[in-house]
Structures are given as C-alpha cells and as structure tokens.
Input
Amino acid sequence: MDMPMTTHRIRRASAGTAALLALLGATLAHAAGLEWGQLSAPQQALLAGVQQQWATLPADRQERLALGAQRWLQMSPEQQLQARDRLALWQGLSPDQRAGVLAERARFRALPPDQQKALQQQHDNFSQMPADEQQRLRDEFARKSGQGSAPGSLDECLKRKSAGESLSCSKLAQPVDGNGGAVTRKKKLLPSLLKP
Output
C-alpha cells in the first residue's frame, strides 16, 4: 500500500512543479515586456517616437503604452480631439493642481456606484446648460458659500489667480440642484478621470 501512495505523491508533486514552472515562465515573459515586433503596425506608427528606447523601457510602461496606443486607434476623430484637449489641460496644471485632480478622482471612485451615477448625471446636466446659466449657478453657489464670484473656466481661474486672487483652479464649483438642495463639487476638468 505504500507504493501507490508514493506514486500518487510523485505525480502530485510533478503536477505542482509543472504548474509553478508555467507560472514562473509566464511571469518572466511578462517581466521581459513586449518586443517591438509584437506591436501591430498602427501601434508601431503611433509609438515610433519611443522605438529606439523601447527595449530599455520597463515592462509595465511598455504595456501601458501599447494599451494606450490601442485605445487611441479605437477612438473616433472627435474622441481623439477631446483626448488631446484634456491632455493639454492636464499638462497646463501645476503639480498641486494635478494632485488635487487625482485626489478628487480617488474620492469619486471610493463612492458607492449609485452616488457616482448621481454625480455623473448632475455633471452631465450642468454641462448641457448654456454657458450663461452655468455661470449664474456658479455665482449663486459662490454667494451662498461665501466664496465670492466663482471662475467660469480654467483659463479665467488661472488669470484671476495670477492677478493675486486666492483660488483653487483644479476644483470648479458645481451648482446647487434645481430645488436648492445639497451642493456637490466635481471636476469640470478631465471628467473622464472621474468615470469608474
């Protein structure tokens, strides 16, 4: 009886060893990153600027670049234009403003899904309003919260801040709801970062 038990243990150990070797091989392949030739021709065209240093990039960066290129290729021209605009806005932010945006995104993602959906709906409703109505609601919010007149755009905020006003341009105020209810604050800037 000892013999079959030993054979069973050897088979089980062999199967376990094979599984570990397969996992190790997959991990090493992932750690090695992507070869330039593994990218599609359109991805290579988009990433041509990094081709020379591709082999020296960390594997996780190669993966992010490849996935980003793939997402870009799947976007419509309008979506690509919006992405360019968001990138330009992001690049124009100071490190403190970027930190504020990232903190707000983390706070938003920590909310329960129903609250995220409600905030997104409020943002969408506000975004569809005419600019003068948006500004009126911003001013009303600022008056009720004792902040003075709120900036209507990132450009306006940055101009006013450079003129000496104490403003946080990374957080533009959302209006009160139509019934005078609770006020919510959410980024007008980079709304795609807020999506779950």
